[in-house]
Amino acid sequence: MLRNILPLCLLPILVSAQYGYNTDSSPTPTGSSVKAAPSAPPDTTGQINVDVFFQGNYTFHPNNFTAPKGTNVTFYIPNSGFDHSVTQSSFASPCTHLTSADNSTVGFDSGLTSAKQFTITITDDTKPIWFHCKQVQHCGLGMVGAINAPTTGNNTFEAFMAAALAIGMNEPMEPDNGFVSGGVNAVATAPAVATAGASSSSNGGFTNIPTHVGILVLSALMAIMMM
Ligand SMILES: *[C@@H]1O[C@H](CO)[C@@H](O)[C@H](O)[C@H]1NC(C)=O
Ligand SMILES: *[C@@H]1O[C@H](CO)[C@@H](O)[C@H](O)[C@H]1NC(C)=O
Ligand SMILES: *[C@@H]1O[C@H](CO)[C@@H](O)[C@H](O)[C@H]1NC(C)=O
Ligand SMILES: *[C@@H]1O[C@H](CO)[C@@H](O)[C@H](O)[C@H]1NC(C)=O
Ligand SMILES: *[C@@H]1O[C@H](CO)[C@@H](O)[C@H](O)[C@H]1NC(C)=O
């Protein structure tokens, strides 16, 4: 409800000013900014590690990569003051958990959580795997990712990101039923587990919390004004 009330004219300004279009293709920055990042360790053979809410931004890092069959991809979800998820979606519906009408096909989902790590294993590297964060508004702010996305044609990562940003504040509110095992082209077999050494002082999300809360407060105020 609330997110429909925020004037549409404000959204492009908010989105471009605070979040922008971010493909995370830049190399990992060095120096003091690294301290704000959650703790995805370097990749090793057969193991790719992804930071969730990287440096307090509404992004996965990396958010567009290839992974051969058998690769384990582990997502590091920080304790950022609010929960995040790694939820499989589809190119057609970037911000919606991938589920067929009869539940015969269900995408993986970490469920909303924090200070955890969540692993999926690639089972078919010839098809793309699309995912997003189901936390309210995060997907529409560009918190999406793709594994083995086509590099040409209509269904590129760039098009997927653009589709998520186009949804913006109209992102559907998703139910959260916790961990969902299985998946399409990649599977999760176990719930997220506590990240070794994660501390409550992890400040991966600190920088943007005021903005996040600000949007909600602004939305609430406008809702009250319009009553
Ligand atoms: C992926 O994780 C599973 C379960 O921990 C493990 O058995 C397997 O060896 C891992 N694969 C790679 C390539 O590391
Ligand atoms: C995260 O966002 C801040 C501004 O909020 C920006 O300065 C920084 O470059 C961003 N980091 C990444 C990795 O996009
Ligand atoms: C599919 O799963 C959801 C969530 O577990 C459940 O609410 C729904 O009833 C299921 N639908 C069918 C057709 O089984
Ligand atoms: C790609 O998109 C264009 C424009 O929407 C459409 O004309 C074309 O048929 C699409 N190509 C495929 C392979 O779907
Ligand atoms: C996504 O990654 C592919 C390679 O896997 C690359 O060709 C493409 O340019 C990337 N897209 C963006 C928007 O970074």
Automatic annotation (TrEMBL):
<dbReference type="InterPro" id="IPR052953">
    <property type="entry name" value="Ser-rich/MCO-related"/>
</dbReference>
<dbReference type="InterPro" id="IPR008972">
    <property type="entry name" value="Cupredoxin"/>
</dbReference>
<keyword id="KW-0732">Signal</keyword>
<feature type="signal peptide">
    <location>
        <begin position="1"/>
        <end position="17"/>
    </location>
</feature>
<protein>
    <recommendedName>
        <fullName>Blue (type 1) copper domain-containing protein</fullName>
    </recommendedName>
</protein>
